[in-house]
Amino acid sequence: MKFLRKFLDAQEKHFVKGGKLEKLYPLYEALDTFLYTPASITKHAPYVRDMLDSKRMMITVVWAMIPAILMALYNTGYQANLAMAAKGITSASGWRGEVINALGTGYNANSILSNFVHGLLYFLPVFLVTNIVGGFWEVLFAIVRKHEINEGFLVTGMLFPMILPPTIPLWQVAVGISFGVVLGKEVFGGTGMNFLNPALVGRAFLFFAYPANMSGNAVWVAVDGYTAATPLGIAAQSGLTAVTQTLTWKDAFLGFMPGSMGETSALAALLGAAYLIYTGIGSWRVMVSVVAGLAVTVFTLNAIGSDTNPMFALPFHWHLVLGGFMFGTVFMATDPVSAAQTNTGRYIYGFLIGFMVALIRVINPAFPEGMMLAILFGNVFAPIIDWFVIQKNIKRRKLKSAS
């Protein structure tokens, strides 16, 4: 590592002001601070003595996502292998088939290796396109604005593939991440200035611009000609009884069901939540209040009931494990930039998201997932919530000082 440190130090002169590669300084700075703690320090008080800079905070979030990433690979391949067995397909054409044939893993849903390899062949292209295209926009804006590359894309670049279906065309991945990064973040000034979660902005754009590739029963299993609705979609159409005919609560909790690649496993999300709370990166106040908002609303709707809408009867414990509720609660509702900043505001913000998830899922079953829209709705209201909380605190202090 000393060799690498000396090499980077020797190259710095080419990238600083006056160097022949001055315009590419953001690229050098991004690599240097990614590998090593930044050398710059504050010259005047106040001082914060902490090794956790923004890049390392984002890396911590990515570490917390590892269980969900592994489950994304496994379940994507598992669902595809199950579908191929159901259709009697033993081999596939195209480059994926050639890779699998070369590796000799086959299409066996009972093989852990086969499921991982098959899932990786769908996840990896989406991940690469996301980071290449999104990284291009990050670098371009950094060079034009003459500042370091924003580290927030470390998380956005991982979140975006996780919330997409495996059959998404790669050109739509490029369009979606471009929309999310440019119009969801950079037009507001970059990382720290955006009031909406960029990954969700990109997904929302794709959802409304290309609904055939983002919803319905033909996008969740990566096998041509095979259709499978998500359990939430089945529940919205036919009720919980239809869901339990093919899916147990345990399997839903573990994540063995069709859905966006990284959102299906509540267990993986909970493992990530434990790590984020332990490291102090994720707000437990937001997570707990999102669940509380969902619980209060669902129990109320269960009590009201409906003769025509089966979603009114869907129990709270099923809402927790279906769709991307737990994944969104842990990794997107807690976004430190677009979430509420005050502790009291976080409770209100989280409760609002939980309330909106239940409302969208139950009252408007045309959008059975609900989590994406609920978080974006919460993002919009987060600054207002914080403003009222701060104003209330100011008023309380004035009254206290006057007395």
Could you characterize the architecture of this molecule?
- The protein has 403 residues and is mainly alpha-helical.
- The chain folds into two domains: 23-38 and 52-228, no CATH class; 264-403, no CATH class.
- 64% of the residues lie in helices and 0% in strands.
- The protein has 18 helices and no strands.
For the structure shown, list the relevant keywords.
single chain; 403 residues; mainly alpha; 18 helices; globular
Category from helices, strands and their pairing: mainly alpha
DSSP E strands, number: 0
Task: Round the mean pLDDT to the nearest integer and report it.
Answer: 87
Rg value: 23 Å
How do the helices and strands follow one another from N- to C-terminus?
HHHHHHHHHHHHHHHHHH
What percent of residues are in strands?
A: under 5%
Q: Distance between termini?
A: 62 Å
Total tally of structural domains: 2
Number of helices: 18
Estimated helix fraction? 55-70%
Spans of at least 5 consecutive residues whose pLDDT stays below 50 are 44-48
Largest sheet: none
Shape: globular
